[in-house]
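Pasting as-is:
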Amino acid sequence: MQFPAGAAGTGYDTLLVTGGAITVTATSGNPFSLRVISLSAGGDPGNASGFSASTAYSWLLATGNPGGGISGFDAADFLIDTTAFSSPRDSGVFSLSQGLSGGNPALFLNFTPVPEPSTYALLGVGLGLVLLTVRRRRL
């Protein structure tokens, strides 16, 4: 099952900004608060049906006009409130980013899972082999 069910605007809310650039006026002292809520398949508060803490997700939050751009965006000026997101996240994190959607400037909410411990183990072995090779060449 795909998470979330449906497309932007039907499976989750999104904004379409017309008439110019998306201008973000939030600051670290006065952040924009984004509340992330999980809903069951029936639309009630609860674990999100189909959500997997080991999968990366990216949801379109807002799009603007072509050429309008995004000004004033700094992810640090947003507060992401996940207290109403009850699905297990296994230490995964939510973040915001800017990019393009269909050639238009866009803001995205992302979920990044924490890598499995085996990923760190493989990274350590690879780094060890590189260091061993460098040391052998010096000797």
